[in-house]
């Protein structure tokens, strides 16, 4: 039997570096930011795809995604080792249909737990709805990074609205040089830079960004579109680099090869902030209206950059009140018109940058981590969840079959 430490231990269940994904980076940033709080000790349960996957020294326990028994073992370890568990929830990182194995874990927990929702679907499948509904109703709190998701979690998933807490996505507080200085470092002094970064997949809609650049390049020959990032591992495993090659072929076919550059690597946070810092605008031409949160858009907010985006839910929320420009889905002409606004109206560009920067400052990890610490502190003052609550939900008609 493992004895609990005297200090309050908060565990995080998530993918974690060296895993290369946004969820892993998010959790690492949050854990590091919380570690400045002396009354709180953080631990990590890393979700692994394979038994031989590399582990960080910061990892305290491993959960193997596709092994159902591993979820019970992880819950038992958490019960013995932690005072509170935070589950970073994304359907795809857990095993079973729609990640249903996570229910085995939450039903075994005897300590309080919090769910941070990285995906909140407006129209989920029945299975998706039942999983998040059950887990959410067993939890002490459900965190959302988009205020627009609060009503959806309550109405669509039946989660008690008093449990739902809004905490914005965090962004690094990395100080960079000026835009002109950064452009000089990267030999881009004469370029007007539009950038997109993140793990590349067809859902990102980058072909519409390339087509938009092709509509402007003849009048703006110094326009440069930087597409930054590796191909998403799950996409690469199934389709190799076919999507990236399609994008490269498209830029060549449109005659704008010199206007579109690909940086094929998983960027460090310092590199991300530098590329955003030298950008004149940031573009997220995503295809799905359902996108509840975007870490890349949050980072661009943190840098105070003009953001051009398709109107997915998170973009609508973050770019309202003149903080950015919204283009139509799958519409290169609409994206091009937004880029043209940035190119030809410098004063409007400056006003938007000031507005995004003002919001971005509130999203620095130092500020966001304090909100998490306050929430965790309040939870840890109360008693642990009554095991009868678990039994009641297990016997309810909401049981996932």
Give a brief rundown of this model.
The chain contains 16 helices and 13 strands.
Report on the architecture of this protein.
This protein has helices at residues 22-34, 68-81, 102-108, 126-138, 149-155, 179-185, 206-216, 233-239, 242-253, 269-278, 295-302, 313-318, 332-344, 346-362, 365-380, 387-394; strands spanning 8-14, 40-48, 61-64, 84-89, 113-117, 141-144, 164-166, 192-197, 223-228, 260-263, 281-284, 307-309, 325-326. The chain is of the alpha/beta class and 401 residues long. The strands form two sheets. Strands 3-2-1-4-5-6-7 form a seven-stranded parallel beta sheet, with helices on both faces. It has a six-stranded parallel beta sheet with strand order 10-9-8-11-12-13, sandwiched between helices. Helix 6 (179-185) packs across helix 10, helix 7 packs parallel to helix 9 and helix 7 packs across helix 13 (332-344). The longest helix has 17 residues, at 346-362. The two termini are 33 Å apart. Residues 1-5 and 384-401 have low confidence and may be disordered.
């Amino acid at each position: 039997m493992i004895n609990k430490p005297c200090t309050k231990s908060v565990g995080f269940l998530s993918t974690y570096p060296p895993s290369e994904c946004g969820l892993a980076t998010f959790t690492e940033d949050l854990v590091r930011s919380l570690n400045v709080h002396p009354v709180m000790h953080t631990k990590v349960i890393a979700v692994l795809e394979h038994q031989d996957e590399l582990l960080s020294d910061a990892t305290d326990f491993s959960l193997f995604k596709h092994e159902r028994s591993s979820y019970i073992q992880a819950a038992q370890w958490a019960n013995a080792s932690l005072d509170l568990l935070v589950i970073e929830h994304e359907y795809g990182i857990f095993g079973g249909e729609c990640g249903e194995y996570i229910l085995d874990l939450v039903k075994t927990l005897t300590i309080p737990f919090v769910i941070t929702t990285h995906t909140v679907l407006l129209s989920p499948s029945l299975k998706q709805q039942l999983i998040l509904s059950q887990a959410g109703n067993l939890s002490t709190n459900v965190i959302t990074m988009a205020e627009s998701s609060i009503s959806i979690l309550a109405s669509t998933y039946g989660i008690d609205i008093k449990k739902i807490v809004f905490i914005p996505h965090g962004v690094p507080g990395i100080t960079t040089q000026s835009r002109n200085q950064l452009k000089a470092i990267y030999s881009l002094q004469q370029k007007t830079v539009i950038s997109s970064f993140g793990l590349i997949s067809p859902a990102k809609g980058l072909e519409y960004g390339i087509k938009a650049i092709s509509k402007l390049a003849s009048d703006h020959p110094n326009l440069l579109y930087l597409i930054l990032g590796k191909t998403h591992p799950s996409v690469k495993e199934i389709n190799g680099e076919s999507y990236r090659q399609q994008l490269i072929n498209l830029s060549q076919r449109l005659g704008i090869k010199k206007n579109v550059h690909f940086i094929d690597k998983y960027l460090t946070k310092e590199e991300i902030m530098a590329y955003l810092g030298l950008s004149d605008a940031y573009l997220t031409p995503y295809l799905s209206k359902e996108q509840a949160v975007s870490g890349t858009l949050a980072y661009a907010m943190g840098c105070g950059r003009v953001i051009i985006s398709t109107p997915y839910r998170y973009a609508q929320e973050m770019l309202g009140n003149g903080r950015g420009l919204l283009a139509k889905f799958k519409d290169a002409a609409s994206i091009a018109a937004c880029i043209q606004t940035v190119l030809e109206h410098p004063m409007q560009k400056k006003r938007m940058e000031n507005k995004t920067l003002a919001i971005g400052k509130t999203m620095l990890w130092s500020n966001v981590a304090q909100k998490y610490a306050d929430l965790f502190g309040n939870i840890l003052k109360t008693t642990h969840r009554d095991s009868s609550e678990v039994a009641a939900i297990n016997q309810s008609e909401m049981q996932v079959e």
